[in-house]
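Good day; I would like, with your permission, to put a structural problem before you. I would ask you to consider whether the tokens describe a fold that such a sequence might reasonably adopt. The full record is reproduced below for your convenience:
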Amino acid sequence: MRLLQSILYYDQNFFVWVLRRKHYARLVAISYWLSKTGDGVWYAILGITLYWLEPAQGPKFLASGIAAFALERPLYLVLKNSFRRGRPQTQGFPSHIVPADEFSFPSGHTSAAFLVAVLATWFYPHTALWAFGWASSVGMARIFLGVHYPADVVVGALMGSACALAGIRFVAL
């Protein structure tokens, strides 16, 4: 219990530190657009585009992505509705966007972004730096916009990465 209290203490303090930097309008705008790149429609477009334009790895990327998201989305919903951690604005913190739901743990945007980053790195190793830089930026944007605590993002990143590896393994069988 003491460990959990320590995690929550540092989680909230880091979140407050980030919030104090929110007055930079340009960073808020960048965070908004980075967060938008983590919306689900882009993943479908990417998978279908690679399927058609890159026949060597594209079909495997798409199949692994479908398998990974088939695991990740239900897991995300179960965790979100089991933990029911209120979003930062329910604790009195300001937010720059209106989130789609009321719970913050884990971060679905971050989970999906890391899922795709792992897939991209697996099938296209030369994209690793860009893919993980982008996925990390999506997670930081979610914190900066005031809709997630850091722990939500860390767990989302781990969950998405694990689901991607499971999807790759499933398709390889």
In short: Helices lie at 2-19, 25-36, 40-53, 58-83, 108-123, 128-144, 150-172. Residues 58-83 form the longest helix (26 residues). Residues 132 and 166 are 18 Å apart (CA to CA).
